[in-house]
Structures are given as structure tokens and as C-alpha cells.
Write a structure and sequence with these properties.
Chain B: Belongs to the binding-protein-dependent transport system permease family. Chain B: One of its GO terms (cellular component) is plasma membrane. Chain B: This is Binding-protein-dependent transport systems inner membrane component. Chain B: It is a multi-pass membrane protein. The complex is a heterotrimer of chains A (504), B (305) and C (312). Chain A is 34% helix and 23% strand. Chain A has 504 residues and is of the alpha+beta class. Chain A has two domains: 145 residues, Dipeptide-binding Protein, domain 1 (Alpha-Beta Complex), CATH 3.90.76.10; 209 residues, Dipeptide-binding Protein, domain 3. Chain B has 305 residues and is mostly helical. Chain B starts with a helix and ends with a helix. Chain C has 13 helices and no strands. The chains are: A alpha+beta (504), B mainly alpha (305), C mainly alpha (312). Chains in contact: A-B, A-C, B-C. At the A-C interface, helix 1, helix 8, helix 9, helix 11 and helix 13 of A face helix 13 of C.
């Protein structure tokens, strides 16, 4: 009985023509869904994608990265220059006001930077802020940011996660107050916050002349809906206008319905297999380079991309995202070749394969597909699917010999955000290669682009030769929205509500 | 009666303490919460600092008594994830779950008791068969499945009810039905059995023989007696239901305590999970305590012991 | 109410609640009523027949399909089943999201779902029966302790605790079975306790005591045969319960690990596409529904056959 109901109903869905979508355009309200409960909307105290999306709408950074040209433009700063290797001087924009009427000037920058740079204040994503030592006021509209050593990627962060808070308000309200009643300079101001559940944004009429551009839609209503089916049900029944992160198969079906716009864009996230070359988890076959190369040859990454990820996803060969600065593409590649994989396993002394625990924390179907490919060459991989934090604990302790990981680099377009994160002998480094460490140190601390490029290249080539990682594929995201709306997604996976508009 | 009530209360307290100990040790074994607090990008040294700061390196009993005495004062600590007091967080979410639980049990009682009575009064009738069919279905159908089917029919096809959220009464219709349906078979079965038993009892025959109207016999005499075990069962089911609303809340995106529990487990947010297990247990303990008192009052055989 | 509400005091205070649970088991079931009213006398037969078929399917799965449930074909994903347009005759029930034969997964999945139900019921049955029999036979302090433990167990929210434990240990077939087994013993204990109480003072038991039989002997040869019917009824109910709980855990992503084909996992994997390819969850969903229905009908039928005095 149930089957018939479901089948009948879906036919009805497909035949259903959109009639109630107009209502929201009439209210000038964009209804959107977050998948994850945001722990805090204070952008320094969450680490979720949803938090970044919220942050870009409510706050501004000193700089802005133009997504089309790839150039940095001034946002809260109007000009900037390096005084020396560790001192950046910025001129600030005049006449900007926070949502609560507080005037923006050097004091706000100094307060914000000095607050977030102190480790004891507990900013969740330390890497976003710990490159800054302090900020110093020069005059009312001039500040200097002092870095902890040379930091070539500084602009990337000033245009991204470092948002400027109002000093008087933040001193009084603190992170807890900011989480309940956020105040920024951004194109949207926050009307209401129900922690984790529901957020309402209103267009900020006094928005300054920023390269972001003023918001077009009057109200953005954000609800947290964890289940993708429920999100789709809301979309179909007119309760939502815009969702993203829709899995490839569903997106394809929705596109075929013709009622909604489906836009696909790649993201900076890549998936990879992390292999314990250093033997941190004990003595096992994966410590042998030939076995790691066999694993790389065993998995048909192109088929996984074509059938499962689809969209703008691509197979990647280097341990970084291709557009990132320093991401060498001329590295050893491993084609899908099960015979060669078997031969390599035999050479390494495992003609009958071996058994290994395969850890993963997301995208179970991709992991399952890889298990099947590994089984074909004789590697019996047992899936252990854990929560992210549980798996990270095990990796920190060096207990995993093989795990399926992904990394989004926080949309920072520089190899330091990924390769240096994982290959500098930290808790998440399973290669522990001294040569790679030296190259990466050289690349990370130089301000000369040529020197950086060359050193990243050396490091990435060795990583590929040794198959310390098996880089798999880049991710993509599907954005599904009402045909009344216009929106162009960007590769940094940040939904900028202020760039969504109604079709005229 | 008073002695019974006091002993029953003493038992309730003892059970509560044991449950808290069990849940605390269970989660204590789960390993290191420091990493969960630190978030996705912490280094190993960050995590070590947090471990010391929060006192996770202290012995088990010290941590437990510390937690228990704070809990007695209504302080369940800070949520690792939201960085808010757990008590505030739960107070905020509990109202949704309570409302859902009350609606669910009311729905179950309002359908199961009349159906059970009708089935007992008119065995083999259409109503009896309908009741049996509904209850057999309810026993074998997973509630998440039922919920998804309702969404497809009433939200997508008919557009009558919103699939998610908690902004109006309409949002609660489907979750209520799904949750209530879970408790319905047992209540209906018990009502029907109780009514059948009572209707055959001597005093009902006497009442009928004395010419009392059928309605009067049914409601004044029969139902009143048949309802005694149903009260207990409803209390037990209500306790189960609050703990079992996790699936329903996650499907309908109701931000209640059940959903909070599920998310907190996924996030390794131990203070929240501990507090929620304790609170769900407390509900069960309080409901069964009250129902035992109600039963003792309804059924004098129990009070005299 | 059965007459086991004994002398006032702690025992009584504790026994009140759990008697409700026992009452629910002993009261006539919808299956029993259904048997008489809808299927005539065939409810039990239906239950046994369907369950037997499912067991046979599980045992002989390799003979029933030539496909391997683990072989994936990414080029042939989500092929529809035979009653829909565009189906592949080679895949009678279509293929799943990784192009694996759905029929093969369903047939092999019967093994897993049955194993989960049977082994979880066995574990909880051993624990619950031991506790219930001890409480019922010895009474006194033993009964107090057991009754207290049952109360504690009933107060713990099962789904929540199971989720927390599985999340901690990581989902796997063994973990799920053991966790469910350790959580579902309450009804066994409750029912065994009150059943044993009813028979322990009967004449033949007293006679066995008088001639000096050992306690295990009395329990095994005199008491158990007389309470076996109740034990079997609870076992079937708990088996069905365990199967449904595993499905719920799988739905929340914490059940059996892929690629093992459990029906709960198949529903969970098919859920993603439920609005577009509803047959992906309908097929394992219907299978699960039939299995649970059959087990329940079997249990209800057994109760009627073995304990005629309990008919309503």
C-alpha cells in the first residue's frame, strides 16, 4: 500500500507546477535552510560552513576578494601596504557605521585583532587568527597589523575570516552577547536569533559603498532543517526558496522537473586517502611505498567522479586544490589499473592482498565505492565510519593506517592552507618526511612568490612519488532555488545572500 | 497510603541516582571529550590544555560527585558545543518535546480508548476490525517510515501541512500522529481486554439487571474499572515516548530535546547528553510515580496492601 | 490485576510499575484477535509460514540469485525494478546507488536482519530470564534487587542510550547486536519473574523441593517447562523490537556498517532518494514490515495456543 502511495505521490510532484513560489517574492523574503545547527553566530566561535555564510552577510573584512577578477579590493580598508616583512599598514574607510550606530574607526580594528589574536580568548579556528600578533593604532583611520613572522597569505585571511567587530559593543557584550545579538557593518543586519534554530536578517539600509554591493532582497529567513528530504519537501511545498549542498542525484532529478534553478559550482574541498606511511599505527603493509602506489592504481577515481560526485568535480592528483597558489600539477599520476595494482602488491610481498581498517567520517557511498575497488585487487578494507571528532582523536593518536579524509582549506587559495597543514610533522602528518618539512617551511615563510612556488613544487612532487596521500577528487556543490531568484555560485562555497536578487 | 507514597518516592530517588551513575559512567568511558570541545582545527597542544582546564584528567568518582552536586542545584555545566549553560539550552528545547509528548499521548488515548471500548462492546464489528488492523500495522511499521510517508502525502501532494518547523499548530499535526501511533496499539489492546473482563464481571451484570442504561453501565461502572491499568500503561508509554521522539523530531525538524540529544551525541557534547538522559529518565520516573499514586487512589486494594 | 502485589513495602512500591509491563504481555493481543476474526485460525500459520520462508531465503540466498550483493557497477546505478519502465531484466528489483543488485542485497540482507533479531533476543533472553527466574524463585532480597534493576533499566531511554553507545563504539554488526541485547532484557525479566512466582508454590515444585532436588534442577525441570510459553512469546516480541530498533539506528546513520546488506541499512541508504526513487526504501521497508508482522503474529499465535486461559 505504502509503495503505491509513494510512487503515485512522486508522479504528482513531478507533474505539479509551481504556483505558490510567488508568495515569497511578494513578501521580499528569501527563505533558506541551514543543515547544521550553528553553535554560535559569532564568526570567531564556530567552525561551520553555515557560520562563514552568516559572517559574510553580517560583517565585513578589511579587504574583499573579488570572485571574478581574483583581485583584492578595499572594503573597510581603502589602501594597504607592507611596511616591513611583519608589519602591514592599512588606511581605513571613513563614514562607516555599525548596525547599532557605532562609528567604525581604528579602535574597532585594534580591539578586534587584539581580542582574537589572544589564544586564551578561545577563538575556535586558531589558524584564522594566530598569524596576527597585534594591531596598533596610528591615527583615527590608520592601523598597523603586526604578524608573527612573515605571512604571505595575510590578505587571504583579511578578506576572509577576519571580520571587524564594534569595539564598544563587543567589550560590553562579549562573544556570548554577540552570539545572541550580532552587530556588524555588513549588508545585512540581524533581526532575530534563536540559537541553532532560526535567524532572520534584514537589509542594512545604511550600508557603506563596499565592493560587496548592497543587499537586494529585504529579508532573509534562515531555518535549520537537518534532513535533506525535509528540505526538499519544504522546497516543493513552497516553504523554502533556496537550498544548497543538494546531493548530485537529487539535483539531477530536480533539474529535470524544471520548476527550480539548479546551479552547480566546484568547491575548494578535496577528498583524499590518508595513508600511514610512517608506521605510526604499527607495522603494516601500507608503510611500503609499493602498497600505497597499488592503492592509488586500484581506485577508479574517474568513475567515482562521473557517477557519484558529478557536476564540476574533477579527479585531483596533487595534495592540494588545483587553483591554490603553489599547487604543482606536474606530479606523478596513478591511472586506474587494477592489474598494475596487483603486480605492485605482489612485488611488495602481498600477492594475496591483505586486510586493513578503512576509516571515514562522511560521504559513505564514496567510501563504499572505494572499498569495492580495493576488494577487486585483494585488499580487504573494513569500513569504520565514525563521527568527525572521534576519528580525529584516533588520527591524532596515530591509530589509523588508512582513512578517507576531506579538506576545504577554508577557501584559502594557497597551498599553505592544506599541504602545510598536513605535512609539517603535526599530529595529522602520517608521512613524517623531513625533506618535505624543510621545503614546506621554506615555502611558508618566504614572501618571494618564486621561492614559494618552487618549494611547494618539490614537496608536492615527493608526496605524489611516495603516494603519502592518494588525492581523489574535488567536491562540488549544487544550489537549488526558485526560478524567481537570481544567483551565481562561487567556487569558495560561500552563499552571499546580498548577491541574490529577484528576477525582474 | 502515605507510607506507600513515601516508599515509592524513596524508590524514585534511588532509581534516579542509579540512572545518573550509569549514564555518567557510560559516557565517561566514551573517551576524551577534549577534542570535541576544541573544534575542527585544534592542535594536539590545544586539546591538552582544554583537558586540564575542564578537569578531564581527574578520577572518575571526583568528576561524578562534582557533576551530581551541581546537577542537584540545577547546574548541568556548559554545553561544549553551544558554550551555553546546558540547563538553559534544555529548558529552551524541552517545551517542544513536552508539547509533542502531551499531544502524542493524548492522540493515542483519544483514539485507542474509544476504539478499545468499541471493540470490546461490539466484537467482530467493523470498528473492532478497524481497530485490530490499525494496531497490527502500528506494531510493525517503523515510525520514520510512517513520518516520511505522511510528509509526502500531506505536505507535498496535498499541501495541507508544513513538513517542518514548530511555528504553528499545523506543524505538530503529523509529528503527533506519528508519535501517538507508536503508543496506540498497547493502550488499545489493554483497554479492550480490560473492558471485556469488566463487562463479564458480576457487578456489571447486576447493574444491567437493575435496569441501568447501557451508557451508564459502560461509563460509570465498566470504563472506570477498566481504566486503572491503562493509566499506568499511558504513563509508561509517555516516558518511553519522550525518549523515543528523537526520530520524529529529526524528520520533522522540530528543535526539541530529542533532536538536541541526537545532535549532541553526534557532536560528543557530553554534558548535554548526560543531562538529557537524566531528564528523560526523570520524566519516566515521575510519570510512573504519579500513576502509581493515582492507581493506589483508584484501586483501594493497593493502598491497604 | 494478577495477585502478585505482595506485602506492602519496598517490594510493592517497585513492583507496581513493572506489573504494568507484564500485564501488557499477558493481555490478549491484537494478533490473537486478528487470528480469530480475520484469518480465522490461520494467524499463527501465516506467521510460521512467512517466517519459515524468510529463514529459508536467508539460508539459501546464494542459490536464489546469481548476483553478488557486494559487486558494484557505477555505470548501472539505481536501475528501476521490474514493474517500472526502463528496468533491466537482469536486475529484477533494480540496483542500488552503487549499482549493486537490489534483489541480491535483499536476500542476503534477510540473514543480517534475522541474525540481529535472533541474537539480540537470545542475549537479552539469557540475561532477563536469569534475573527474572532468580527473582521469582527466591523472592525476598533477590527479588528486591532484581526489581530495582528492572526499574532502573525501564527508566533509561533505550533509543538515546543505544545511540550514545553505538556512537562511542562505532557502528558494526557485533556492536549493534550486543548493545540491543544488553538493553532489551527488561521484559524478559518482568514476565519471567511474575510467571515463576505463579508456579513456584505449586505442589509439584514443593514436592521436588521436599525430595531434596537441587535449585538448578528444580528450575530447569520443574519450573522452566511451565513458563516456557511466556518466554517464547516475549522472545518473539523482543526479536521484532530489536529488528525495528536496528532499522531506527540505521536510519539515524548508526546501525550496521556498509557494505553489509541489512534491511535497515538499505532503507537508510535509499532514504536519500526517497522523493524521486521511492522504491529504494519501499522494497526493504515492505520486507521489514512483513518480517516484523510475521514474528508478531507468530508470537501472538503461540501465546494463544500455549496459554488458553489468557485469551480475552
Amino acid at each position: 500500500m505504502k509503495t503505491r502511495l509513494l510512487v503515485g505521490s512522486v508522479a504528482a510532484v513531478l507533474a505539479f507546477s509551481g504556483s505558490n513560489a510567488l508568495a515569497d517574492k511578494a513578501n521580499d523574503t528569501l527563505n533558506v535552510a541551514f543543515t547544521k545547527e550553528l553553535e554560535s553566530v559569532d564568526s570567531y566561535f564556530n567552525s561551520a560552513r553555515e557560520g562563514v555564510i552568516f559572517q559574510r552577510s553580517v560583517w565585513d573584512g578589511l579587504l574583499y576578494l573579488n570572485q571574478e577578477t581574483g583581485e583584492y579590493e578595499g572594503n573597510l580598508a581603502t589602501s594597504w601596504q607592507w611596511v616591513d616583512d611583519t608589519t602591514l599598514e592599512l588606511k581605513l574607510r571613513e563614514g562607516v557605521k555599525f548596525h547599532n550606530g557605532e562609528e567604525f574607526d581604528a579602535d574597532d580594528v585594534v580591539y578586534t585583532v587584539n581580542f582574537v589574536a589572544k589564544p586564551e580568548n578561545g577563538v575556535v579556528v586558531q589558524r584564522n587568527v594566530n598569524w596576527m600578533k597585534e594591531a596598533v593604532k596610528v591615527d583615527k583611520y590608520t592601523v598597523r597589523i603586526i604578524t608573527n613572522g612573515p605571512f604571505p597569505a595575510a590578505f587571504e585571511y583579511l578578506a576572509g575570516p577576519v571580520s571587524i567587530y564594534p569595539n564598544e559593543y563587543y567589550a560590553e557584550a562579549g562573544p556570548a552577547g554577540m552570539a545572541l545579538k550580532p552587530v556588524g557593518t555588513g549588508p545585512y543586519q540581524v533581526e532575530s536569533v534563536e540559537p541553532g534554530k532560526h535567524f532572520v536578517l534584514k537589509r542594512y539600509e545604511g550600508y557603506h559603498d563596499s565592493p560587496k554591493g548592497a543587499a537586494s532582497i529585504g529579508t532573509v529567513d534562515i531555518r535549520t532543517i537537518p534532513d535533506v528530504n525535509t528540505q526538499l519537501a519544504e522546497l516543493f511545498s513552497g516553504g523554502l526558496d533556496f537550498i544548497w549542498g543538494v546531493p548530485a542525484d537529487q539535483a539531477e532529478k530536480i533539474a529535470a522537473m524544471g520548476r527550480f534553478t539548479v546551479a552547480n559550482e566546484s568547491t575548494m574541498r578535496i577528498g583524499y586517502l590518508e595513508l600511514d606511511a610512517a608506521g605510526r599505527s604499527g607495522d603494516h603493509p601500507i608503510t611500503k611505498a609499493k602498497v600505497r602506489q597499488a592503492i592509488a592504481h586500484a581506485i577508479d577515481r574517474q568513475a567515482i567522479v562521473d557517477s557519484l560526485l558529478k557536476g564540476k568535480s574533477k579527479v585531483v592528483h596533487s595534495a592540494c586544490f588545483p587553483t591554490q597558489f603553489g599547487c604543482e600539477q606536474d606530479v606523478t599520476t596513478y591511472d586506474y589499473d587494477p592489474e598494475k595494482a596487483k603486480a605492485l602488491l605482489a612485488e611488495a610481498g602481498y600477492p594475496d592482498g591483505f586486510s586493513v581498517d578503512f576509516y571515514a567520517y562522511r560521504d559513505r557511498p564514496y567510501a563504499e565505492a572505494m572499498l569495492s575497488y580495493l576488494a577487486k585487487v585483494g585488499i580487504q578494507a573494513n569500513l569504520k565510519y565514525l563521527q568527525y571528532s572521534a576519528l580525529r582523536d584516533m588520527r591524532f593518536k596515530g591509530e589509523t593506517s588508512m582513512s578517507f579524509q576531506t579538506w576545504g582549506s577554508y577557501s584559502v587559495n594557497d597551498a599553505s592552507a592544506i599541504t602545510s597543514q598536513f605535512f609539517k610533522h603535526g599530529a595529522e602528518d602520517f608521512a613524517r618526511d623531513d625533506e618535505v618539512l624543510a621545503w614546506l617551511n621554506a615555502a611558508d615563510t618566504s614572501v618571494d612568490p618564486a621561492v614559494r612556488k618552487e618549494n611547494y613544487s618539490e614537496a608536492l612532487k615527493k608526496i605524489a612519488d611516495q603516494a603519502y596521500w592518494v588525492p581523489l577528487f574535488s567536491y562540488n556543490s549544487n544550489y537549488v532555488f526558485t526560478q524567481d531568484a537570481e544567483f551565481t555560485p562561487t567556487p569558495d562555497e560561500v552563499v552571499r545572500f546580498f548577491q541574490v536578487s529577484w528576477k525582474q | 497510603m502515605l507510607a506507600f507514597a513515601l516508599k515509592r518516592l524513596g524508590l524514585a530517588v534511588l532509581v534516579t541516582l542509579t540512572v545518573s551513575l550509569v549514564s555518567f559512567s557510560l559516557l565517561f568511558m566514551s573517551g576524551d571529550p577534549a577534542s570535541a570541545i576544541a573544534g575542527e582545527n585544534a592542535s594536539a597542544t590545544d586539546i591538552e590544555a582544554i583537558r586540564t582546564l575542564y578537569g578531564f584528567d581527574r578520577p572518575f568518582l571526583v568528576q561524578y560527585t562534582d557533576w551530581l552536586f551541581s546537577a542537584l542545584r540545577g547546574d548541568f555545566g556548559q554545553s561544549y558545543y553551544f558554550k551555553l549553560p546546558v540547563a538553559d539550552l534544555i529548558a529552551d528545547r524541552l517545551s517542544t518535546t513536552m508539547l509533542l509528548g502531551i499531544c502524542g499521548i493524548s492522540f493515542a488515548l483519544l483514539t485507542a480508548v474509544p476504539l478499545g471500548v468499541a471493540a470490546a462492546v461490539r466484537p467482530n464489528s467493523f470498528i473492532d476490525r478497524l481497530a485490530l488492523f490499525l494496531s497490527v500495522m502500528g506494531q510493525a511499521m517503523p515510525s520514520f517510515w510512517f513520518g516520511l510517508v505522511l510528509i509526502v502525502i500531506f505536505s507535498i501532494n496535498l499541501g495541507l501541512l508544513p513538513p517542518s518547523g514548530s511555528s504553528s499548530w499545523k506543524n505538530f499535526v503529523m509529528p503527533t500522529v506519528v508519535l501517538g501511533y507508536y503508543a496506540m496499539p498497547a493502550i488499545m489492546r489493554l483497554t479492550r481486554a480490560g473492558m471485556l473482563e469488566v463487562l463479564n464481571a458480576d457487578y456489571i451484570r447486576t447493574a444491567r439487571a437493575k435496569g441501568a442504561s447501557e451508557w451508564r453501565v459502560m461509563f460509570k461502572h465498566a470504563l472506570r474499572n477498566a481504566v486503572v491499568p491503562v493509566v499506568s500503561l499511558a504513563a509508561v508509554q509517555m516516558g518511553f515516548m519522550l525518549g523515543g521522539s528523537i526520530v520524529v523530531e529529526s524528520i520533522f525538524a522540530l528543535h526539541g530535546a530529542g533532536y538536541l540529544a541526537w545532535e549532541s551525541i553526534a557532536r560528543n557534547d557530553l554534558p548535554t547528553v548526560q543531562a538529557l538522559i537524566l531528564i528523560f529518565s526523570l520524566f519516566y520516573i515521575v510519570f510512573t510515580f504519579l500513576s502509581d499514586l493515582a492507581n493506589a487512589w483508584l484501586d483501594p486494594r493497593i493502598r491497604v496492601g | 490485576m494478577p495477585g502478585s502485589i505482595r506485602a506492602s513495602g519496598w517490594g510493592e512500591a517497585m513492583a507496581r510499575t513493572i506489573e504494568t509491563v507484564a500485564e501488557e504481555i499477558r493481555s490478549p493481543s491484537p494478533g490473537a484477535m486478528l487470528r480469530r476474526r480475520i484469518f480465522g485460525h490461520y494467524g499463527l500459520v501465516f506467521g510460521i509460514a512467512v517466517l519459515t520462508i524468510i529463514v529459508l531465503i536467508a539460508l539459501f540466498a546464494p542459490l536464489l540469485t546469481s548476483h553478488d550483493p557486494y559487486t558494484q557497477d557505477l555505470m548501472a546505478r539505481m536501475k528501476p525494478p521490474f514493474w517500472m519502465a526502463g528496468h533491466d531484466p537482469d536486475h529484477l528489483l533494480g540496483t542500488d546507488h552503487l549499482g549493486r543488485d537490489y534483489l541480491a542485497r535483499l536476500l542476503y540482507g534477510a540473514r543480517i536482519s534475522l541474525a540481529i533479531g535472533a541474537v539480540a533476543a537470545l542475549i537479552s533472553g539469557l540475561i532477563g530470564t536469569a534475573m527474572g527466574v532468580a527473582a521469582g524463585y527466591f523472592g525476598g532480597k533477590v527479588d528486591l534487587v532484581v526489581t530495582f534493576l528492572i526499574n532502573v533499566r525501564l527508566a533509561m531511554p533505550v533509543v538515546l542510550v543505544a545511540l550514545a553507545v553505538v556512537a562511542i563504539l562505532g557502528g558494526s554488526l557485533e556492536v549493534v547486536i550486543v548493545v540491543l541485547g544488553l538493553l532489551l532484557w527488561d521484559r524478559f525479566a518482568v514476565v519471567m519473574r511474575s510467571s515463576v512466582m505463579q508456579v513456584r508454590d505449586l505442589e509439584y515444585v514443593n514436592a521436588a523441593k521436599a525430595i531434596g532436588c537441587s535449585v538448578p534442577r528444580i528450575v530447569l525441570s520443574e519450573i522452566m517447562p511451565n513458563v516456557l510459553n511466556n518466554l517464547i512469546v516475549v522472545a518473539t516480541l523482543e526479536m521484532a523490537h530489536a529488528i525495528l530498533l536496528e532499522a531506527a539506528l540505521s536510519f539515524l546513520g548508526l546501525g550496521v556498517q556498509p557494505p553489509t546488506p541489512s534491511w535497515g541499512l538499505m532503507i537508510s541508504e535509499g532514504k536519500q532518494m526517497m522523493l524521486f526513487e521511492p522504491w529504494l526504501i519501499a522494497i526493504p521497508g515492505v520486507a521489514l514490515f512483513i518480517l516484523v508482522l510475521a514474528i508478531n503474529l507468530l508470537g501472538d499465535g503461540l501465546r494463544d495456543v500455549t496459554a488458553p486461559e489468557n485469551r480475552g
